[in-house]
Amino acid sequence: MEINGLVPLHAYSVLKVVEYKEKRFVLLRNPWGNSEWTGPWSDGSPEWTDEWRGALELLDHRPGNDGVFVMEYRDFLKQFAVLESTKLFDESWVVSSYWMQLRGLKIDRAWSYGDVSWTFAISEKTPAVIVLQQIDTRYFMDHAGWLQFNFDFVLFKKGSKEPIARPVKPMPASRSVNLEIELEPGEYVVHARIDIDESCRQEWYHESVGSWNRRKVARQKAERAIAYSIASNFRQADYIDQLPVPLEVFADRDVVEVGIEAVETSRVAYLRRKTLITASSKTHSRASTGWFGHDGETNNHEEDGSKGMLLLGGKEVTTEPETDSVCEENPSEGVSPHGNVHCDGCGSPINGPRFYCVDSRCSDYNLCELCSGVGIHPREHRLLRLETPEEADKFLGSTVPHGTLNDDENPSLVLGLRVYTHKESPATIEGFIGHIRNIKQSVKSG
Length: 446
Prior knowledge:
Blueprint: E1 13-20, E2 23-29, H1 53-59, E3 68-72, H2 73-79, E4 93-102, E5 113-122, E6 126-134, E7 147-157, E8 163-165, E9 176-183, E10 186-198, H3 204-208, H4 214-228, H5 247-250, H6 255-283, E11 290-292, E12 298-300, E13 309-312, E14 315-318, E15 337-342, E16 349-351, E17 354-357, E18 366-367, E19 383-386, H7 389-395, E20 413-422, E21 428-433, H8 439-445
Antiparallel strand pairs: 1-2, 2-3, 4-20, 5-10, 5-21, 6-9, 6-20, 7-8, 7-10, 11-12, 13-14, 15-16, 17-18, 17-19
GO molecular function: calcium-dependent cysteine-type endopeptidase activity; zinc ion binding
Active site: 10, 30
Domain ZZ-type: 338-391
């Protein structure tokens, strides 16, 4: 739908502004190269008499169907609500970024913080531009989902409860919001909140996709997978049939040779994990591994004697020597199994405590108690200890199991923070996803 030739919720470029005979004129361009303003002072309109030809010369404009057009300033003010400037970064600037894929966002929820946050640090005073941005979905618009995401953010300095700044409220359907600010050395925290709306009926995709060219659908889904792969927690297994394999993977080798190498690499990784787990099971020689309970208290597994004294929730528990089996196949008496959740270390069903990785680089990664202490997962990743399935439901809700993600049914949001600074003080960024639900309830009751 157009209004006097202008496309709603569409950005135009302002090329020039002139004043001629006490009238103000604005020269604009539609980046599409067509669909021009058709109101007063448009190309070919009756206002362009010989008296006003001089304005065209000042604007350096020639009428034509090229997307460039003239508006009188008062009409420009009536039609456009936001005017943004563009900042050009030269070689004195650097940019750091951190992207995450957010799944399972629901439309019927509070407009609130807690889904995602970032921290970044700078070493010297610097001007900065902070940009919160979602990926450009125009390459695969029909497969971007039925939800529309809007967002904003607030900036804090570490150790202070008072916000430093917020960006100007963005227009609906904006791909990014930004803030220009002078920053002192130190650590900063960015909290984002996400608003969700429907961009179309949820059923529209399934009603339409059957009539589309399947070759084009495959190409667009490949573009979607490539775009999403920028996320730190991107799960390649969910897009295995959509991701193209880069040519350099094959290069001077035939496909069989490459395939054999892939199988052997996978087998070596599996055997390494199994060796670590089995050795720990037989000897009780456990690495000291940090985890925290839902109360926020950090704990550690500590080796103490041949029977394996562990500090669990502040209590000493003596464990007997284990058999050759890696994990118990059946839950012990009084312990509830965690549904269909399997350990990503040994592959066995998790009985007893479940250790859920809350690092943004992991997605639905779970370990049993044994595997959580043998060094198969990065030590810097924080593990949330969940005693029962009920506790997991309360604080995690429903997670998205491996291989079950469907972006057509439940669209995900790939959101990134970009921090531009002078190159003498580059930003170091880390991102965090709010896996833990009921934060308000937990803080209040705690």
